[in-house]
Design brief:
Length: 261
């Protein structure tokens, strides 16, 4: 999915025309969206131009979740355009794109904190539990959207790609894990507690300030899923740079269960 072909100059013009903002800008990372950091003398914002292939209801789902979390500490706030819109379309070189703006969160990316102390990891688990509690009563028509980033559908993501794994040893290892997933996980999925979860609490989406988790962003993978997936996804990323990965997972799980038992 190609990124929208908009430049920093375009971002400046959009900020001025639709938000009455005179800002400096620089690009931010994005897998499928064009993201720009806008800096004014008083505040910072993130301008997001979404890929054409992204369904409008998916972006509305994210916005609805952010509105729902407006009183939750450490999530982006939606910035309305001067016309009072949280999402609108623009035309660029004959193509149409969805645009929105959110507040910018300050902090250090969790992935830059190495090693992560037990206190930080437990705080991470507790933060995610509080986030899930805040989302527990949130619903939206798009929450059951079909996406391969749902761990429940791991078999659908992995099976068609097994032959793409270059070495027989690695292919056999993945096949073993896949069969174990089918045998041990899939039968119990219907019995797990489900709700809308962030579904992508990786170390590049989490922020740290003063030694504690201070924020989370990128709600693009929101999904109505088993709540335990929130912990599993977070732990899978957080353990990667740790000398004792199993202990890191244990600290995250303990922090989560200190809030949600």
């Amino acid at each position: 999915m190609p990124l929208p072909p908009l430049t920093e100059k375009d971002a400046i013009e959009i900020a001025s025309q639709y938000y009455d903002l005179i800002a400096k800008t620089k690009p931010l990372p994005g897998d499928i969206d064009c993201n720009f950091l806008l800096t004014t003398p008083d505040a910072k914002f993130v301008l997001k131009i979404h890929a054409q292939e992204t369904p409008r209801e998916d972006i509305e789902f994210q916005n609805a979740a952010l509105w729902h979390l407006k009183d939750f500490e450490g999530v982006p706030h939606i910035i309305l355009s001067k016309a009072g819109k949280s999402l609108f379309t623009i035309s660029h070189e004959g193509e149409t794109y969805l645009v929105r703006m959110v507040s910018y969160l300050e902090g250090t990316l969790l992935e830059e904190i190495i090693p992560k102390s037990p206190t930080l990891l437990r705080g991470l688990g507790a933060y995610l539990a509080k986030l899930d509690i805040a989302l527990a009563d949130f619903e939206h028509p798009a929450m059951n959207r079909d996406m391969l980033w749902d761990l429940s559908l791991a078999h659908r993501a992995i099976e068609p790609r097994l032959e793409d794994i270059a070495t027989p040893e690695r292919r056999a290892l993945v096949s073993h894990v896949l069969e174990r997933f089918k045998r041990r996980v899939m039968p119990v999925l219907p019995d797990l507690h489900k709700q809308v979860i962030h579904n992508d609490a990786n170390t590049q989406n989490l922020l740290v300030q003063d030694g504690v988790i201070s924020g989370i962003f990128d709600f693009g993978d929101l999904r109505y899923s088993p709540r335990v997936f929130e912990v599993a996804i977070c732990a899978a990323y957080a353990m990667l740079s740790e000398e004792k990965p199993i202990e890191a997972i244990a600290h995250i799980a303990a922090g989560y269960h200190s809030i949600i038992s």
